[in-house]
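Board notes (copied after class):
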Amino acid sequence: MPPRSVPSERQKRLGAELRRMRNDAGESTDYAARLLGLDRAKISNMEAGVRAVTPERVRTLATNYGCNDEQYVEALVAMAKPRPKDWWETYRGQLPAGLLDITEMEWHASAVRAGAFLHAPGLLQTDGYVRAVGSAALPPLSEHEIELRVAMRMQRQQVLHRPTPISYTAYIHEAALRIEFGGMKVMRAQLHHLCEMSELRNVEVRVVPFSSGAFPGAGQALMYATGVVPQLDTVQLDSAHGPGFTHAPAQLDKYRAQLDWMQTVSFDPGKSRDFILTLANA
């Protein structure tokens, strides 16, 4: 298969897992190359996500690396299988690749926990709110790109409504509920929407009040996506330069602990809904 010019985060993740599996087995890239009848450079590209790997080769590598975790291997095999063009691919080349990577991560997760400090969580935003956030960007975004972002954000939210929806927990700091993106009318609609979404059985919204005091981390938005197996958990972090992704065990532990802290200090779902509704009706 020809190399990819820009691999997606999911493709890079598959390669990283194959590299981790090889390292755990104490094997070299030369060993993997001989095993598959490839040169060493192709193995390096495969482990970087630049070159595709077939499901059959994933099984061959797993067997010869002595990986006996059948669920983990099958999850990697599923990642390697060719897929029809996913809906978010229609935005490739029109929006930053990182936005597509977030969408793909959410789509394949079994559960997502989100921590938001300054904005409403992406999967719970209204179109007016998305438009207001996009309009505040620097350097300014064109009207066309803002509308593309609105359309994609709305489509992203189908993971909450599809026949097998993800389980979604949003921890929202009080600050994010009081910053009026788009003005009072847009923000009031956003607050009412949060209340409506919190009524879904697969969605839990919890407010972290100002009274909780100091908080861990730098205050950037984060998402913890639970994979189909624990080895495929992923954290996504927002930054001014675009989304970042990490799956190092120490980092996963760190951000799980941060979300656990938010769980501890937040209002329960009922009190959170009442709190948001009070703000919306103020």
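Comment from the instructor: The first strand starts at residue 111 and ends at 116. The mean pLDDT is 96.
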